[in-house]
């Protein structure tokens, strides 16, 4: 897929601030891909697609999850998690993205999962540390991402789970499995 064409589609589908976030994630993903010898093309593609469903209505997200028979547990959790799996479906069905590693990177960029590929880790981390993010500890995560992708992923999933636990909200099982994989 032509990157410039995809950017035009994203600009139409997303708010301006979300579109700018996606561009920052793509730039971060590309630079990390070079550092960690991961395909820059795959990293850019996954990063550009990662939030393609982010601005869809809750009803539309639910309809796609149900129609595509995605994990029904998703519907028991906050709808903020839904855009990853729906984005993966959109990438596959509407844009013919066939590479399972890219599809998984899109699908799991919010929850993580056990046994993530390096591309999946890269997109998860890039999304969390892109330059527009500002939360306590982000600078430490950025430094770690420059040193060791696996360690950065562990620190990022720890940050995510800790955030959710502190808010006293449910944590999706894939995130717990991911967290457990890094603790072990």
From TrEMBL:
Flavoprotein found in the keyword field: no
InterPro entries, per the entry: Diverse_Catalytic_Enzymes, HD/PDEase_dom, HD_domain, HDIG_dom, YqeK
CDD domains: HDc
Annotated catalysed reactions: P(1),P(4)-bis(5'-adenosyl) tetraphosphate + H2O = 2 ADP + 2 H(+)
Residues in HD domain copies: 18-132
Gene Ontology molecular function terms on file: bis(5'-nucleosyl)-tetraphosphatase (symmetrical) activity
Keywords, in A-Z order: Hydrolase, Iron, Metal-binding, Nucleotide-binding
Statement: the UniProt record of this protein carries the keyword Iron: yes
Enzyme Commission numbers on file: 3.6.1.41
Annotated protein name in UniProt: bis(5'-nucleosyl)-tetraphosphatase (symmetrical)
Species of origin: Sporosarcina soli
């Amino acid at each position: 897929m032509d990157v410039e064409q995809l950017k035009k589609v994203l600009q139409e589908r997303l708010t301006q601030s979300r579109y700018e976030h996606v561009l920052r994630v793509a730039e971060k993903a590309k630079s990390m891909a070079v550092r960690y010898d991961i395909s820059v093309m795959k990293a850019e593609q996954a990063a550009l697609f990662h939030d393609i469903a982010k601005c869809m209505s809750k009803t539309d997200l639910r309809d796609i999850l149900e129609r595509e028979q995605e994990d029904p547990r998703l519907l028991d959790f906050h709808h903020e998690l839904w855009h990853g799996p729906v984005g993966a479906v959109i990438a596959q069905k509407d844009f013919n993205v066939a590479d399972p590693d890219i599809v998984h990177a899109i699908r799991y960029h919010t929850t993580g999962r056990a046994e993530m590929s390096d591309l999946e880790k890269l997109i998860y981390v890039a999304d969390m540390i892109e330059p527009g993010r500002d939360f306590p500890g982000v600078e430490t995560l950025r430094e770690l991402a420059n040193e060791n992708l696996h360690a950065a992923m562990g620190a990022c999933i720890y940050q995510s789970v800790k955030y959710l636990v502190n808010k006293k909200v449910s944590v999706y099982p894939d995130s717990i499995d991911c967290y457990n994989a890094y603790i072990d």
